[in-house]
Design brief:
Distance between the termini: 29 Å
Shape: globular
Largest sheet: 2 strands, antiparallel
CATH architecture: Orthogonal Bundle
Strand content: under 5%
Strand order of the largest sheet: 1-2
């Protein structure tokens, strides 16, 4: 895994579960679990297929940090990145208006809200599910701070290409 991808996933994991149990985290407001707060019931078929274990349980997933990390990398590649490309094609003006600065911001929004929730946020500025989540801007800022701390620790500079960037932001 490249250092940039590692920083994205580690930053996302820290934003999602810092102080709540890391790999063993369980969201008290939703059914999201693990370091990356994956909704197992929604993704269990993909997780089971990816793991090669058709009988994998939610508890098995919680107890397997390596599987959580590998699945998050797979999820970024097969879900977040394609969804990001769709958002960039269909909602570029809204992305600029909401000050999403780069690919990492867009993928963070998609992870947090899913594609329908991301579109809703881009159109309205509001969360589709406010009862389950902190405000979106707060979450995005938290994830940015975590990524920046990781970059500082690993000496990966901001001049490393991150993809999508909106001039003037």
């Amino acid at each position: 895994m490249s250092e940039t991808k590692k920083i994205f996933s580690e930053g996302l994991g820290a934003a999602e579960s810092r102080g709540t149990g890391g790999y063993r985290a369980k969201n008290p407001k939703s059914t999201a679990i693990g370091k990356y707060q994956i909704v197992f019931s929604q993704w269990k078929d993909k997780i089971r297929e990816f793991s090669g274990n058709p009988n994998l349980t939610e508890q098995d997933f919680i107890n397997n940090p390596d599987l959580q990390d590998r699945f998050m990398e797979h999820f970024e590649k097969t879900v977040l990145s394609p969804d990001m490309d769709k958002l960039k094609k269909r909602h570029s003006l809204s992305l600029k208006a909401r000050k999403l600065k780069d690919d990492e911001d867009i993928k963070t929004l998609l992870h947090y809200q899913g594609y329908p929730g991301a579109v809703h946020y881009l159109k309205t500025g509001k969360s589709k599910w406010p009862e389950n989540n902190a405000p979106i801007e707060e979450y995005l800022e938290k994830a940015r701070k975590e990524r920046n701390m990781l970059r500082e620790k690993s000496n990966v500079g901001d001049n490393e290409p991150k993809g999508f960037y909106i001039e003037g932001s």
